Amino acid sequence: MPLKAPFETSFGRIEERDFILVQVEGSGHFTGYGEVTVMAAPLYSEETVGTAWHILEEFLVPQVVGKNINEPTEVKWLFQAIRGNNMAKAGLETAIWDLLAKERGFPLSRILGGTRAKIPVGISLGIEKSVSILLERIEKALAEGYQRIKVKIKPGWDVRVVQDIRKHFGSIPLMVDANSAYTLADVSLLKQLDDYDLMMIEQPLAHDDLVDHARLQRQLRTPLCLDESIRSAEDARKAIELGSCRYINIKIGRVGGLAEAKAIHDLCQREGIGVWCGGMLESGVGRAHNIALTTLPNFIVPGDTSASSRYWHEDIIDPEVTVSEDGFITVSRDPGIGYRVLHDRISKYTRLEKIFRN
Ligand code: OSB
Ligand code: MG
């Protein structure tokens, strides 16, 4: 699906979104939907559309087709022997959560234990050709109601940009995401960010690091948030023990599904670490799963789940996800993900299709 506007991070520029949609059917007439939130290239994580397709076809789909699954939490255990490949796993696991929620007639948020009727939302803004373009984008996002602004940073696009944003907009809720663009050699630069009252700095150091982040956190007043480094509740436990962060960005795909996402949420709640829901520029299907997850009580910071119109000319769900003037998304009370999936739109964007039967 072509993005309305390119999205640039420290690891590269995304102009269109390639991903896999998963549709599952049970013995009844219900259909569950999930999204494999991989990218075309292995720049955010090592998975790609191609590797996810391979892992699903050869290893994950055979674990579930024809199986008797009564609880969505069983899926995690069916996939347990297969190492890594969390986004491939999550696409199928989330589709099964949707299916089982629909069979029971409850919203997915309820099945997960969520309590909110509406969720507070923020927006993640990419690197732009000039600061003035970014300032315009922030202006628009604030006018649309977004409750928190996150901007991408990289070496050469960091302290100056943050300084300009503060000068222009004052004390708005602001944070930055580096997608692993720095090392401990940049400590003095990262320390300069302490002057700007940021809510947090997301994933400044290596994508697989916990130790250096702990060392950095000890030298900063600003809280660190981990994204790429946390792939499981075990990773979260170690990060908390080491003091690597004060927030965790939970992405359903990165952690292998909704059961693991909830486990991380629950652990962080017990440990007094706040969480928020990250995004992977999802279509409506992945977005709906993010909304359901965000209804859990420890999602205490507005997440990256923005309106459909922030990404797409047309989304593949009905109704589209919209954000209220005061920056909330109302949670659907319909069963499962709570949105109708538009098959004609999906067909329009589909390159490859495969049906597995037992
Ligand atoms: O690091 O959070 C990230 C998008 C693609 C890959 C990684 C990230 C992001 C975002 C955008 O920040 C989140 C969104 O709007 O979906
Ligand atoms: Mg991030």
TrEMBL record:
- Which residues hold Mg(2+)? D177, E202, D227
- Enzyme class, top EC level, equals lyase
Catalytic activity reads: (1R,6R)-6-hydroxy-2-succinyl-cyclohexa-2,4-diene-1-carboxylate = 2-succinylbenzoate + H2O
- Which terms are listed as keywords in the entry? Lyase, Magnesium, Menaquinone biosynthesis, Metal-binding
Which CDD domains does the record associate with it?
NAAAR (cd03317)
Q: Which SMART domains match?
A: MR_MLE
Ranges for domain Mandelate racemase/muconate lactonizing enzyme C-terminal come to 131-223
Documented EC number(s): 4.2.1.113
Question: Where is the catalytic site?
Answer: K152, K251
Query: Which InterPro entries does the protein's record reference?
Result: Enolase-like_C_sf (IPR036849), Enolase-like_N (IPR029017), Enolase_C-like (IPR029065), Mandelate_racemase_C (IPR013342), Mandelate_racemase_N_dom (IPR013341), MenC (IPR047585), OSBS/NAAAR (IPR010197)
State one molecular function term (GO): O-succinylbenzoate synthase activity
> Does the record bear Calcium in its keywords?
no
Give the GO biological process terms.
menaquinone biosynthetic process
What does the similarity note say?
A: Belongs to the mandelate racemase/muconate lactonizing enzyme family. MenC type 2 subfamily.
- The protein's name in its UniProt record: o-succinylbenzoate synthase
